[in-house]
Amino acid sequence: MTKVQVCRFFFKWIGYNLPMNTLNITFPLERSEIVSMLQHFKISPTRQRVEIAEFLFQRPQHLSAEKILDGVTRDGNRVSRATVYNTMGLFSNKGVVREVLIDRERVFYDSNPKVHQHLYNVDTGELIDIYDVEVEMVVEPELPEGLKIIDTDIVYKVTSK
Ligand SMILES: [Zn+2]
């Protein structure tokens, strides 16, 4: 059994149903679609926010804030580092993108709206999507009174054997 299979077996036991994301995206998003999407999330579509989102939603991808800054400026837009960081904070708070936290130095922003989990390869630094539509609630974690689960985020960290 590989390490990944061991993790997945474990996940079957601790996993719970994830809230389905209602976004139905066909990549790449056009500028007009970006504007409506931001409005849907109650975000004012400023020029810079639209440019950043346009870069993100070319395809489902995982990008660090620095990669986003590089990409957006390479496309000829003038966006500051602070704007990229602020915008990504706003986008993840509002649910436009998902923030995937590997550790303090590594945060990825994920434009893939489908329910999925991640494999992080510590050798290559690569983050890979994994889908498991059959994640069922088998054992629910014991929660303090009055709390309910609204989301979960699982990153399996893997390395070569
Ligand atoms: Zn992902």
Automatic annotation (TrEMBL):
Transmembrane segments: none annotated. CDD domains: Fur_like. Signal peptide: none annotated. Gene3D superfamilies: Winged helix-like DNA-binding domain superfamily/Winged helix DNA-binding domain. GO terms for molecular function: DNA-binding transcription factor activity; transcription cis-regulatory region binding; zinc ion binding. InterPro entries: FUR, WH-like_DNA-bd_sf, WH_DNA-bd_sf. GO terms for biological process: negative regulation of DNA-templated transcription; regulation of secondary metabolite biosynthetic process. This is Iron-responsive regulator Irr. It comes from hydrothermal vent metagenome.
